[in-house]
Design brief:
With 179 residues, the protein is an alpha+beta fold. It is built from 2 helices and 7 strands. The protein is 35% helix and 30% strand. The two termini are 19 Å apart.
């Protein structure tokens, strides 16, 4: 599961960087809008004031359009997990689990991906990555192995997660070659 955590951290870092860049842009945009306001106060003719007011309105509309929209946040959890109570008790995912190995040396893994936010998550992709000494006993339903990727990785794409508590339940079985 280390690869899944690494992938998650990389996605989180990319999202944080994008959010920081957007905030910096909006601050610069706000400064430009204030400069237009200052210029408007210094312009004497009515015609220039109308034109400058139009430019200022356009800048404000563009700034509002570029403001970051609310983002969905997906949570991974093994079964079982604490579903919480909407509005009073937060959802508590299970991120670490010890599973039994069956007599045929397979381990059956069940998990969910949840969207606890009010925003729909679109066009997502996530991966399951098993340890290097294990093999998939069968292909996890709905997942694909991407060309050039490790035999331990499987990807799921194009899932829309509606707001609050929608979930995508999945399971897979892998052969554990550990003695």
């Amino acid at each position: 599961m280390t690869g899944l955590r690494s992938l998650g951290k990389a996605v989180d870092t990319a999202n944080e960087n994008q959010e920081a860049n957007t905030k910096q842009f909006l601050v610069a945009f706000g400064k430009l809008s204030r400069k237009v306001s200052d210029l408007q106060a210094h312009i004497a003719t009515e015609e220039f004031q109308r034109k400058l007011a139009s430019v200022q309105t356009e800048l404000q509309n563009t700034e509002r359009a570029l403001a970051p929209a609310p983002k969905a946040r997906l949570l991974f959890s093994f079964f079982p997990y604490d579903a919480g109570v909407l509005g009073s008790k937060p959802l508590k995912p299970t991120t670490d689990v010890t599973l039994p190995m069956s007599l045929d040396r397979t381990v059956h893994v069940e998990f969910v991906v949840l969207n606890p936010t009010e925003t729909e998550a679109k066009d997502g992709r996530y991966a399951i990555i098993i340890c290097d000494i294990c093999k998939y006993a069968k292909e996890p339903q709905g997942f694909t192995k991407l060309d050039g990727r490790s035999e331990t990785e499987r990807y799921f794409s194009s899932v829309k997660f509606q707001h609050w508590r929608s979930l995508h339940w999945l399971a897979w079985t892998c052969w554990c070659l550990r003695t």
